[in-house]
Amino acid sequence: MSLLNYSELFRPKIEDYLHQVIDQSNPPGYKELKSMLFYHMGWEGEGSGSRAQGKRIRPIILLLCTEICGGNWEAALPIAAAVELIHNFSLIHDDIEDQSLTRHGRPTVWSRWGIAQAINTGDLMFTLAFQTAALASGSMEDKLILESEKILFHTTEKLTRGQFLDLHFEQSEQTSLDDYWLMIEGKTAALISACAELGALIAGADHQQQKYFRDFGRSLGLAFQVVDDWLGIWGNPEQTGKSNDSDLMSYKKTLPVLHSLARNGEFAKRWNKRSITSENLSELEQMLIKDGSQNFTQDNAEKLTIEAMNFLKSACPVENDACLALEELARTLTQRRR
Amino acid sequence: MSLLNYSELFRPKIEDYLHQVIDQSNPPGYKELKSMLFYHMGWEGEGSGSRAQGKRIRPIILLLCTEICGGNWEAALPIAAAVELIHNFSLIHDDIEDQSLTRHGRPTVWSRWGIAQAINTGDLMFTLAFQTAALASGSMEDKLILESEKILFHTTEKLTRGQFLDLHFEQSEQTSLDDYWLMIEGKTAALISACAELGALIAGADHQQQKYFRDFGRSLGLAFQVVDDWLGIWGNPEQTGKSNDSDLMSYKKTLPVLHSLARNGEFAKRWNKRSITSENLSELEQMLIKDGSQNFTQDNAEKLTIEAMNFLKSACPVENDACLALEELARTLTQRRR
Questions:
Q1: Using a CB-CB distance cutoff of 8 angstroms, which residues of chain A are in contact with residue B116?
Q2: What is the sign, positive or negative, of the torsion defined by CA atoms of B230, B232, B234, B240?
Q3: Where are the domains of chain A?
Q4: Which of A187, A298, B84, B327 is the most buried (most CB within 10 A)?
Q5: Global pTM?
Q6: How far apart are CA B338 and CA A72, in angstroms?
Q7: Which class in CATH covers the domain with range A3-334?
Q8: What is the average pLDDT score of chain A?
């Protein structure tokens, strides 16, 4: 079975499960609330459909890891759905916090329904995530559910700590590369790492193997974010599906920017003057290249990808289809610039 | 032992436990994040101290119910702390959603640190609540922890559904009394009901007794909110510790207002014109009294209080100190107008 086969097998089951959980107990009075949840999940409203739904990468990683370790992936569905709900709760809140107007090419929940309802809808999504995890009682032992929950709780803690740093650095004059790594460790790597670890845990893998999966997910998550930073400046919006606006115009402190700011050269001078418009973009991009910041970003992405692949090799002692599929998925995620 | 004795016994333990949970894993980089949490809990910053901390009523109810049912209240501390954290997470977010500038006489988290950081700090508080509940593994069996968590997850779902309705009704032209009861059932009664039920559950009470406690908490929560609505118009700000502004000036759809609006008389006409200032207050208050809305509110508060007391009698087959203390607490909460 290839990655495509696994995707085609997992995706509808994940979608069904999410649908079922979010659709439950929605009496008529809560129609608008259900609409907000369904809209955000890409199931309802203008522009709904597979593009609006995102790729559900996190639950797919989790189920592949269960499969690799010889577990029953269907038993892992509640936890996989929980992970996707946690991801989506954080997107709803992050969009408010970052004042993002669009996601997957559609208006964000807060820009459609206002900040107050969006905060609350995110809170409900958060709650549903844990409710979903608790549903695993049909397929998992109590001890295992509690262990999985512990990982989920700690992961959402790391997510919010990472988001704190991100918001904090926006306001602060000095942000170091060390700060950056700490921030993306929480914001991006923690949840992907948890997916890989949970998949192994649920399948009954031993501690060492769980650790290999956790480390694989962590390196993959870091690589994923670094590639995202690269794409935010040099990516083709039509290919990436991201907004047309370069990250440079929103003054995001991404890896290439922080690397270049530390050099304190031409780019830093221009950046500190602010008022960057689309006409200045190519000039600024060139300054970053001159400072070696494009190469630096690319080198880091490659280094982290190799690291991830090595951990994956250690995690998969016997090569099987699921292993190869996960390797392919990891490559897709880290080579999106091609 | 009186209510005061129980309070003096429980309060420092609750405070210690909360402190310990919130203080854990706060490396130097997260100093500001810790400050926001500590500030909200009333432990840090201007105006910190017992008034800023609130009364911790919910964990006290929980621990009293454990005690009544012959359980070990110290074993219930993690769940009691979790309940208080859930309450506080919802306060941080509600304050943003309702644009409230002060709480317990101090600036709210969002008005001090901005909306973005406040949303995220609320999310962390939410996560810590569930982490705290999971800490019960030292004193409770796996099965019991999972059962308690299930109640907590469903309660936060009800909280967010109630808040959805509250925000939704603000915008809608027609809000009925049925809508009102559904809304406060989620917003206020659900968590107090959960406290009473959890206390009994942890002590090993049977299903029938758990149900009596749950129903007691529900009626108490409803009564509490109705009294709160009364105080929001006719209460003395100096005695209640609430803001000086009458709920009438923020156009809150409280019980007396909804009752009077349904009469469609003088009050409704004046209300619909808006622009209510402090000079119009006594006139509007008189219109409410004329419509019988003050009496209606008072009657409902009394009816619900009697209901709560009857459930409590059924819940406590043998009268003991803890029972009397809980009865006293319930009376204090529902007779705050005196």
A1: 96-98, 167
A2: positive
A3: 3-334
A4: B84
A5: 0.96
A6: 62
A7: mainly alpha
A8: 94
